[in-house]
Amino acid sequence: MNTLSCPKCQHDKTAKSGIVKNRQRYRCKQCNYHFTVEKAGKQIDSYYVIKALQLHLEGVGYREIERLLGVSHVTVMNWVKKWGIKAPDQLEYRPTYSVMNHQELLHFMKDNRQLKGMGMLVTELGDKYMVIRWERFRVQ
Ligand SMILES: [Zn+2]
């Protein structure tokens, strides 16, 4: 399945090792050398497209998506246009979100008060997790 080979020792057993600045990072299983691939092909691209569209649907602004995913807001706008995504008006619920590592997520979930009275979605974000919550608020 994995056709990449290590640029240092040419070994072909490599493992994915996180995403660094939009690039897929790999680790050679033989010599432990880390390397990144400029454009890791369709898989990474569609990963970010889906995440961006998902965030857009959840009411997160373009600039925020840019900040979270490192994909320019113009690119995100183009994806929204390309895929014909129309986010529903969200008048009563306002999304808030935070990005956490695994430990922080466990800690967060432990407290029952964090889970009650609001919608919630946990989505993978590179090597971290994003928790999106919908909090009810009054329309002025
Ligand atoms: Zn190697």
Structural description of this entry:
By secondary structure, the protein is of the alpha+beta class. Helices cover 31% and strands 29% of the residues. The protein is built from four helices and six strands. It has helices at 42-57, 62-69, 73-82, 102-110; strands at 14-20, 23-28, 34-37, 93-100, 119-125, 128-136. The strands form two sheets. The chain has a three-stranded antiparallel beta sheet with strand order 1-2-3, with no helix packed on it. A three-stranded antiparallel beta sheet has the order 4-6-5. A hairpin with a 2-residue loop joins strand 5 and strand 6 (128-136). Helix 2 (62-69) packs across helix 3 (73-82). The longest helix is centred in the middle third of the chain and has 16 residues, at 42-57. It binds zinc ion.
Structural class category: alpha+beta
- Judging from the principal axes of the Cα atoms, what is the shape? flat
| Tally of individual domains | 3
Largest sheet, described in full? 3 strands, antiparallel
Mean pLDDT: 81
The number of helical segments is: 4
- What's the helical proportion of residues? 25-40%
- Whole-number radius of gyration? 18 Å
What are the secondary-structure elements, in order, as H or E? EEEHHHEHEE
Runs in which pLDDT lies below 50 for 5 or more consecutive residues are: none
Strand order of the largest sheet: 1-2-3
Distance between the termini: 55 Å
> Which ligands appear in the coordinates?
zinc ion
Number of E strands: 6
Kindly estimate the percentage of residues that lie in beta strands according to DSSP.
Answer: 25-35%
